[in-house]
Design brief:
Blueprint: H1 2-10, H2 13-23, H3 27-39, E1 44-46, H4 58-66, H5 68-71, H6 76-85, E2 90-93, E3 100-103
Antiparallel strand pairs: 1-3, 2-3
Helix pairs in contact: 1-2
């Protein structure tokens, strides 16, 4: 999987889409790869939806790094699931109008 992520990350935008399609990822397999893509983003605070004028947008960060097709799989449920599975790496809050996702550095880095 790391090899696929690296190949997609280095490719130009048109090629990113082609690589994603050729990888033949659907359903839970696609969501697993996208989860790894999210975890590989630089540590920081992101907004999940819109609002580019306020800060970094998580969906746009994945779009710019890995292309548009993987960014289609990112939603609140995925981020809350990542928070449960990786509490030391991901914090997400969508209650009371909040829209924040924090990707934390890996320990030891």
């Amino acid at each position: 999987m790391k090899r696929l992520l690296g190949t997609i990350k280095r490719a130009d935008n048109h090629r990113k889409t082609e690589l994603w399609i050729n990888a033949n990822l659907y359903g839970s397999a696609a969501r697993e790869v996208v989860a790894e893509m999210v975890l590989s983003l630089p540590a920081g605070h992101y907004r999940l939806h819109g609002g580019r004028d306020i800060g970094c947008n998580l969906i746009d960060a994945v779009y710019e790094t890995y292309g548009w097709m993987p960014s289609l799989h990112i939603d609140e449920a995925m981020m809350l699931g990542l928070q449960v599975v990786h509490p030391d790496r991901v914090y997400a809050s969508f209650t009371l109008g909040l829209d924040v996702v924090e990707i934390k550095k890996r320990r030891g880095r």
